[in-house]
## 1
Amino acid sequence: MALTRRQKQVLEFIASYQRDFGYSPSYEEIAEALGLASLATVHKHIATLERKHYLRRGFNQSRSLELTPKYFQEQRRLRREAPVAEIPLLGRIAAGQPIESVPGQERLELGGILGRDDIYALEVRGDSMIEDHICDGDVVLVERTSQVRDGDIVVALVRGAETTLKRFYRESDAVARLQPANAQMPPLYVPLAELEIQGRVLAVLRKYK
C-alpha cells in the first residue's frame, strides 16, 4: 500500500530523529515538528504505518517506535533507483602556497543532498554570517528539521514574524541564543516559546559571475 505525503513525513521524521538522538521521538514531538493539531492525529498515522508494516510499537512503553526491515529495504531500493548526482573531482588546488597538480579519478557524489524531499534552498541577504564564510548572495541548502544541536547553523523563525540565519545555542530551558558570525553584531536572545527552528544548513553554494 502506498503512503500518503503526510505518512511519509511522519515516517521520515521518526527516522531522522532516531539518527540524530539514538531513540524514538515522543508523539508530542512528532505533532510539534509536523504541525499536527492533536495527538489523536499522530496516533492515527502511527497506526496506519504499523498496519502497512513500516513501524512497530511497544505498548505501554515510552518512545517505543521501531522502524521495520520493510522501511530499510525501501530506502535501499530508492537509493538504487535514484539518479546519481555527481561531478568529477579532478584533484586539489592550493589556496595558499602552490602545490603539485595531480589529476584525480574521483567523483564528488551529491546524491546525499540533492533530490531529497526535505532539502530546500534559500538565498542569503546580509552579512551576519560572513565569518562563517556565508556571504550576501550565497545560496544555502537547508534540511527541513526542528531537531538541531548547539552550534548548528539554523533557519529560525522569531516571534512568528522574522526569519534569520544564525548559529543556535540553548542558553537555558527557556531561552535560546542566536549567534551571528560577525563580530560587529550582537547575539539575539529569544524565548524558546517564541522561536521556531525551520531547518539546519547543510551546504553553501556560491556562483561567481
## 2
Amino acid sequence: MLDPLHQFTIKPIFNIKIAGVDLSFTNSSFAVLVAVIIIYLLFSIGIRNKKLIPDRMQALSEITYYFIADLIDENIGSKGQKYFPFVFSIFLFVLFGNLVGMIPYMFTYTSHIIVTFTLAMIVFLFVTILGFVRHGLKFFRILAPGGVPKLLLPLLVPVELISYLSRPISLSIRLFANMVAGHTMMKVFAGFAVMLGVCGIAPVLVNIVLTGFEIAISILQAYIFTILTCVYLNDAIYLH
C-alpha cells in the first residue's frame, strides 16, 4: 500500500476482449471519462444562461476561453485563431488530466508516456501536415533559417532536423516526468506519515504544501504544453 509507484498501475475495471483484442475499460479510461465529463459540464453550464454580470461558472469558462484566445494571439497572431478549437482542446485535456489525478483514488492519465506521447504526436503531425499544406516543399526552409551562410547549411540542417524530429519526445517526456515525479513525492511523504503514526505531523504538513505545489505544477505543465503547441503552429504558418 505504501509503494509510491503503485498509483501508476493500470487496472481493468471491466474486462472486455473482442477477437482476441483487449479492450478493457481501465482506471485510466475512467479518469479520461471523468475529465471529459467535467469539461463538458463546466462549459455547458457556464454558457447555458449568459448574464451581463457572470456567475462563477460563466466567469470561469469565459476566463479559460479568453486565456487561450490571448495565448494564440500573442504567439501566432490573427492567423492562428482558426486553430483555436485544436489548441483549446489540447489545453483542457492536459489540464484536467493533471487535476483529476489530484483527486484521492483517481488516476493521472498524463503520468503515462503513451498518453503524453500520443498527444505530442498529434500536435507534431498536425503542425507538419499544416506546414506542407500551406507552403508545399518550401516548408523545408524551416530547417535552414534565413540569413545563415550557405557554408554552414551542411552542418545546420542536420541539427535543425534532429531538433524538429525530437519535438514530440521532449514535449511528451516533460509532461510525463513532471506528473510522475510530483505524485511519487507526495506518495512517499504520505507513507512517512502513515509509518510514523502520531509523530507523522511533519510529513503531513509537507504533503499539504506539496499538494498545493503539485496543483500549481499541473496547471503550469498544461500551459507549457499549450504554449509550445502555439510556437510550433507559428513555425508552420510563418516558417522562420
## 3
Amino acid sequence: MSFEIIKRNYDRGLWSKQMVKVAVIKGVITAEQYKEITGDDYQE
C-alpha cells in the first residue's frame, strides 16, 4: 500500500476518511499526507 494508491482509492470513493485514518495509525502514510488526501487536518 502506498500514498498514491490510497489517494486514488479515496478519490474514487472506495476509501472513507476513517480508512485513510487507519493508514496513518498503521504508519503507512503521515498526518500531512492524510490532509493532502482528504483535505482535513488529522485528528487522533
## 4
Amino acid sequence: MNSVITIGRQFGSGGREIGELVAEKFGIKCYDKELLARAAKDSGLCQEVFENHDEVPTNSFLYNLVMDTYSFGYNSSAYVDMPVSHKVFLAQFDTIKRLADEEPCIIVGRCADYALSDRDNLIRLFISADEKCKTERIMERFDLSEQQAREMCIKKDKQRKSYYDYYSTKKWGHVNTYDLSINSSVLGIEGTADLIVQYVNDVEKKRES
C-alpha cells in the first residue's frame, strides 16, 4: 500500500475506529490524537495548546493572548503577532506533511486532506452515519443520556465544520471535497473498513495501469 489516506468524519460515526482498522489491515500507522503529540514535539509548542485547539477554531483575543504564554519554539518574526490558534494550525500542517513524506499512513481529521492536496498518492475519505447510530455510540462511549449524546454530536460536528471551513478552501462533509464518502451505519465498522481496503486496492491498481 503506497497511499496516504485522510479521513474526515462526523462525530460518532466511528471514523477513528475505522481508520485504525484499515491501518491494521494494511500494516501502516494511523494518526489521530497522536498527531498532536508529534506536532508539539516537532514545533516546540506546548502540547496543551494543541489539545485545547484541537479542531476548534477560536476567535477569542483574550484566550489567544493567555495561551500564547505557553507558545515557545517558533521564534521567527512571522509568528510573533500571529494568534496561537493559527500557530497551532500551521504546526499541525507541517507535521501532517512530514508524516506523509515519511511513509504511507492514515491521518484522521485536522484538515489533512487540504494540507496534502498536492500529493498524487492521496485518498480522501469521509465517514458519516445515521443519527440513531451516532447517538447510540456516543451514549455508550461517554455514558450519556440520549438527549446529551445527540447534543454532543451536533456540537462536535459544528466545531469540526467550522474548523475545516475556516482553514481550508473546501467545505466539510460535502461530497465534492472527497474521493469517497461512506455511511458507516450501512456496513458497520468492520464492513466499512473492508470496503475502504478494497477501494484503496482498486485505486492503486488503476494508478499502476
